[in-house]
Amino acid sequence: MRRRYCDIEDIFLLAGDETVVTKAGKQTHGLDRFFSSIFGRPVKGLAFLAFSLVSVKRRESYPIRMEQLTKEKALCGQRKKKAKTQKKSKKKGKRGRPKGSKSKNRRDVELPEHLQQMQVWLKGTLRLLEIVGIPIIYFMFDGAFGNHNSLQMVQQCGLHLISKLRRDSALYFPYTGKQKKHGAKRKYGSKLDYDQIPDAYLVSTETVDKIRTHIYQMQMWHKLFPDKLNIVIVRKINLETGKWAHVVLFSSDLTLAADKLVDYYRLRFQIEFNFRDAKQFWGLEDFMNIEQRPVHNFANLSMFMVTVAQQLIQQRRGNISNFGINDLKAEFRGRKYVSELLKLLPETLNELLIDDFFAKIGILGRINVPSPP
Q1: What's the angle, vertex CA 363, arms to CA 362 and CA 365, rounded to 5?
Q2: pTM score, two decimals?
Q3: 52, part of any domain
Q4: Does position 18 have pLDDT exceeding 50, yes or no?
Q5: Inter-axis angle of helices 325-344 and 351-363, to 10 degrees?
Q6: Are 23 and 284 in contact (CB under 8 A)?
Q7: Residues 252-280: pLDDT tens digits?
Q8: Count: domains in the chain
């Protein structure tokens, strides 16, 4: 692994994402109803969290860890009951801050249970990458982790977070006016109006197929985060209809350039191709295991095969540029047929003849074949 991935010219990112595998039956460990973005609704199945190593140079994602997610129904019930009792016991008091209360350090947070478990997995993954000599600076996750608790969880692991905020998030410019002589200094300036972003923060403009893309970058405050955020807003305008939409990306690294932040977040989607290959070619959607350990092992095996296949395909694309997974499976299926047929022969053949058998039968069933000499 160290020889394959240690490229001093490459930058590696760590990405995390969840996937849902549909599953019937009643006895599989962790079986429940989880929201599936493919179906657009909760479905019966299993949920997994994957950590993947993303190469900026190769534009590929390599899965390195897969963990099963479960819903603890008993705990959810206790939380609901606890919340109801707290709501009943609440009494209306005086407005404002209670007298004698002290300011709390918002960086010292008590992480929710699911983030605590994820932090354990993340630290274990970072220790593995440290052993093989792959430095990691950024951790990427989708908008579900675009909140204060997730940011603190990632920063406690020594990483910067790259994620997405809600498109209507309340962001504030740093206050630049005159400060009061006494009391706390003001830090929140005017609120950002997404309809009228100042041109001073415009980084780049690009027009492709009548879609104009504006990218803005600024350092801003969010009242739910203790520190400034590196905000990048990507706005796309349809020049024919005049309609526009935007996304709000952010990072805890204030020095990260806008083009790199956008590029890194786009690369996070490579992990979706890993899920697709694992389900379509390596059995993630079809396994029949029901116990906890076999389910965990098979999920990790299917994602491991995605990484192995990527490396084997990359080696063969020097001769065949469109070489894919179906070609790879056809090649190794042919190798298996040849080895079984050779066992049936009464005597050993010439080595050159054996190599010719492997070469010819390995081509059968391929979609892309090498050009004749």
Answers
A1: 100
A2: 0.81
A3: yes
A4: yes
A5: 140
A6: no
A7: 999 999 999 999 999 999 999 999 999 99
A8: 3
